[in-house]
Amino acid sequence: MALRDSHRLFLQSFMSRGILPSKEVRQLYQQACERFGEASDLGRLAEFVNRINIKISPLHLQIKKGINEVTAAQYYGLVNTAESDITRLSSTYTVNELEFYKKIIESIVDSDDGVMSSTDALNLTSQLEKKMLKKDAEDLISKFERDNWLELNPKGEIALSTRAILELDQYIQNQYPNLAVKCNMCHRLCLQGETCSRCDVKLHFSCAERYFDKQEKHHCPSSACNAPWPQDSRRPCRPSDPSAASTASNSEENLTNHTTRSKSRR
Ligand SMILES: [Zn+2]
Ligand SMILES: [Zn+2]
């Protein structure tokens, strides 16, 4: 089935912006339908997006859904599915800049809490083959942040952005099969979340909140472990967000690509 003008208009926004919050995606869908005199039905948004995905898959593009690991807000991003390497960013950054970004990714994936201090990030320049001044590295981190590849939390720590996680999910899993951990609940890559004190089970903050909500005593969801779950002080207090995961409609959930391939850690 061919794409209609409404599909094309919808897709254009993703081409120019890369990633959009769920709430805006729903508005965009309604506006695109209205503009071309079509009835919009939010229950059919997933179908609408899937039709676009079928058409753009030969171009190795896909509109994929993801969550912000801290706020649990949902996003849709247009991602490149062809390369599982980071070279796709090479039109914007030099080889040395990409090397620096890779080092940041590695440190974040290797960390327990999915963040790193900016001082630690700047120190990574000493590991680069080609010299990079700390001042230049500082500017570069700001550029990665502006381009939505890194995110700074209120404490000034560096984390991978929602866009980076959506886009580089496969790269991270290929590159660091022993370090990349998936959330025990949603089976998505989990960098910032809660970790069991005994085993390697990890949960996104929002997934932990939902899972433990039904339990009086908090235990590791792995039946083989079942250790008491640490009361995590890092769980952020989230403002109620209308696009948070718990309010997702089933039709939107259909977009989520659940992969359950598990990898043992370290
Ligand atoms: Zn999760
Ligand atoms: Zn455990």
From TrEMBL:
Catalysed reactions, semicolon-separated: S-ubiquitinyl-[E2 ubiquitin-conjugating enzyme]-L-cysteine + [acceptor protein]-L-lysine = [E2 ubiquitin-conjugating enzyme]-L-cysteine + N(6)-ubiquitinyl-[acceptor protein]-L-lysine
Q: What's any one GO cellular component for it?
A: Smc5-Smc6 complex
What Pfam families does the entry give? SMC_Nse1 (PF07574), zf-RING-like (PF08746)
Q: Where are the transmembrane segments?
A: none
Q: Which residues form the Phorbol-ester/DAG-type domain?
A: 168-220
EC number(s) reported in the record: 2.3.2.27
The record, for CDD domains, names:
RING-CH-C4HC3_NSE1 (cd16493)
Region described as Disordered: spans on this chain: 219-266
Q: One GO biological process from the UniProt record?
A: double-strand break repair via homologous recombination
Name a GO molecular-function annotation: ubiquitin protein ligase activity
Keywords (alphabetical) are: Chromosome, DNA damage, DNA recombination, DNA repair, Metal-binding, Nucleus, Telomere, Transferase, Ubl conjugation, Ubl conjugation pathway, Zinc, Zinc-finger
Q: Where in the cell is it found?
A: Chromosome, Telomere; Nucleus
Main enzyme class: transferase
Where is it chiefly localized? nucleus
Q: Which PROSITE patterns match?
A: ZF_DAG_PE_2
* Record field: compositional bias (Low complexity): 243-254
- Going by the entry's taxonomy, the superkingdom of the source organism is recorded as Eukaryota
| Binding partners and assembly | Component of the Smc5-Smc6 complex.
Q: Its family?
A: Belongs to the NSE1 family.
Give the protein's recorded name: Non-structural maintenance of chromosomes element 1 homolog
What is the organism field in this record?
Ridgeia piscesae
Taxonomy, top ranks, is: Eukaryota, Metazoa, Spiralia, Lophotrochozoa, Annelida
